[in-house]
Write a structure and sequence with these properties.
- The protein is α/β, with parallel strands linked by helices and 243 residues long.
- The protein has helices spanning 17-28, 40-52, 67-81, 104-132, 153-172, 199-208, 215-226; strands spanning 8-12, 32-37, 56-61, 86-89, 135-140, 178-185, 236-239.
- The chain has one domain (8-238): NAD(P)-binding Rossmann-like Domain (Rossmann fold, 3-Layer(aba) Sandwich).
- The chain has a seven-stranded parallel β-sheet, sandwiched between helices.
- It starts with 7 loop residues before the first strand and ends with a strand.
- The mean pLDDT is 97.
- The structure holds NADPH dihydro-nicotinamide-adenine-dinucleotide phosphate.
Length: 243
């Protein structure tokens, strides 16, 4: 067993892709995973798989844009397991398009899920971690948090914001036993690109996604950050496919 064994880890956006794969890996290493997403039927299938393999899992329907729902999943973790060791703010959406396409509803959805969702995760988890005197936030950004690409201005803006918020959180929680990690995946196999409605962006994405990482590559990076001794803060990891 690794030091992951027995950790209580809340994961947002665990119904597919990176979140789902991370939940499976952490549960296989003995973590208690508390998993949230809107598609609860997908969480049920995942939970049943994890339990079949002897893992510990609790599911909770979760829309990260609703602060009360984010608070509720943290409360579920606390009441079931008595503490929260880590919150993985992973939920995200990526309906890409050029700015001139004026897909304002899609811009707002990205801002709501990718930025407000992460802030809700912090707002819900931080008071608990401060009281405990320990905890670990793992925020999922993107290589789009470092460089803007065509049709991705708003998506990248949300990920730059996640990077800035994560850095600020690390500075402000110094000396409180709280660790803060930013994980920035490169192109990874998942359902993320399926929400793109804009034809130009779909074409660009086809080319962009020619070389992808399996989601396990990101899950392993998350495990790496989590399993470090408490005096090690893995601040930022960028994981890209070999090209
Ligand atoms: P997926 O689309 O496979 O997974 C996204 C997850 O987010 C789903 O479980 C979805 O569940 C959840 N989600 C979306 N909206 C909400 C919401 N309002 N409330 C709660 N959960 C929500 O994509 P990935 O696994 O790739 O994405 C995970 C993270 O990784 C995202 O933050 C993404 O930006 C980031 N990332 C991904 C990259 C890639 O190439 N795949 C590259 C860089 C970063 P549901 O719909 O059931 O709510």
């Amino acid at each position: 067993m690794t030091v992951i064994n027995g950790k209580v880890v809340v994961i947002t956006g665990a119904s597919s892709g990176i979140g789902e794969t991370t939940a499976r890996l952490l549960a296989s290493l003995g973590a208690h995973v508390v998993i949230g997403a809107r598609r609860v039927e997908r969480l049920e299938v995942l939970a049943s798989d994890i339990k079949k393999d002897g893992g510990s899992v609790v599911i909770q329907q979760l829309d990260v844009t609703e602060m009360e729902q984010m608070q509720a999943i943290i409360e579920v973790a606390q009441s079931r397991f008595g503490r929260v060791d880590a919150v993985i703010n992973n939920a995200g959406v990526m309906p890409l398009s050029s700015l001139e396409a004026l897909k304002i509803k899609e811009w707002n959805r990205m801002i709501d899920v990718n930025i407000r969702g992460v802030l809700h995760g912090i707002a819900s988890g931080l008071p608990v971690m401060k009281k405990q005197g320990f905890g670990h936030f793992i925020n999922i950004a993107s290589i789009g948090a470092y460089e803007v690409s065509p049709t991705a201005a708003v998506y990248c803006a949300t990920k730059y914001a996640v990077r800035a918020i994560t850095d600020g959180l690390r500075q402000e929680t110094a000396g409180q036993g709280i660790r803060v990690t930013l994980i920035s995946p490169g192109v990874t196999e998942s359902e993320l690109a399926e929400s793109i409605t804009d034809n130009e962006a779909k074409e660009i994405m086809k080319e962009y996604r020619r070389t992808t990482l399996p989601a396990t590559a990101i899950a392993r990076a998350i495990v790496y950050a989590l399993e470090q001794p408490e005096y090690v803060d893995v601040s930022e990891l960028v994981i890209k496919p070999v090209i």
